[in-house]
Amino acid sequence: GTPLLQVEGLKKYFPIKRGVFRHTVGHVRAVDGVDFTLYPGETLGVVGESGCGKSTMGRSVLRLLEPSAGKVIFEGKDVTKLSKSQMRAMRREMQLVFQDPYASLNPRNSVAQTLMEPMQIHHIGNRSSQIERVRSLLDRVGLDPEYASRYPHEFSGGQRQRIGIARALTLNPKLIILDEPVAALDVSVQSQVLNLLEDLQTDFNLTYIFVAHDLSVVRHISDRIMVMYLGNMAESATSDDLFDDPLHPYTQALLSAVPVPDPDAKRERIILQGDLPSPANPPTGCPFHTRCPMAMDICKREKPVWKEVKPNHQVACHLY
Ligand code: SF4
Ligand code: MG
């Protein structure tokens, strides 16, 4: 088939400005070269610690942040080359669901107003068809259509996230970037929302980029998982292969923290030394070398190249 989305060499640098004249004295390399391809109906899980650039990467794909370099080819068009008005039209196809549904919902707007707004901006339908659409979307995300007249504070965290998901669906998007959509929810509610996302994906043939700091959250929903560290890709593989045969020492450390149901199969917990370095002043060579238990001399000098070491399984590490 044809890919829905191809991301090539994506970078997002933020200038660091100092002094009265706000001179640029350096850059925070939040995303420092990301590549992937997504086919319709697939889910890419993107995992890493906070500060690894995963959310910035998602926002750069949608051009909510302007990429510093690279291509974002959506249905054959490079969205980084689109004008503002072309981009506005393209936004219908690409939506974002935020981590904190409360912060992303206007407390003064009813659910109906919140869900009708995207349709009004894009001039879709009239008032009665918009209200009809709101009611059917609420039903589809497991909420009573009568809730349309209520306000965000009247809902639980899980219900608010269902509203956030309904809003993302209003324009019939093809791609949804889910930015830690269950991180703020209780564990029991998390699995309900994950199940809902899987059902919606099947019903509407949605393609997801699912950003999370927790590997276990993305395991079942993802076809592929990409592990990021300091704005760089560390490893990418199918979800099963990443869990069965993690190659990058950072992935191995992340996985060692994931609880396993079978106590006999328990892995040794790998505790990483030191803090995440600043992306304004990243380490030379391999970005992970300051914390890597396997670091060698070459790791300080040379940045490992991204290579496929098994079919469909890529890693950036001098061990391979
Ligand atoms: Fe560790 Fe070296 Fe591999 Fe980086 S390249 S992950 S420092 S072994
Ligand atoms: Mg899936």
Essential attributes:
Rossmann fold, alpha/beta, eight-stranded mixed β-sheet, four-stranded antiparallel β-sheet, 31% helix, 320 residues
Structure description:
The chain is an alpha/beta fold and 320 residues long. It has one domain: Rossmann fold. The protein is built from eleven helices and twelve strands. It has helices at residues 54-61, 84-91, 101-104, 111-121, 127-140, 157-169, 187-204, 215-219, 239-244, 249-256, 297-301; strands spanning 5-18, 23-38, 43-47, 69-74, 77-78, 94-97, 175-179, 207-212, 224-229, 232-238, 306-310, 313-316. An eight-stranded mixed sheet has the order 6-7-8-3-9-10-12-11, with helices on both faces. Strands 2-1-4-5 form a four-stranded antiparallel sheet. β1 (5-18) and β2 (23-38) form a beta hairpin. It binds iron/sulfur cluster and magnesium ion. The site of iron/sulfur cluster has 14 residues, from loops.
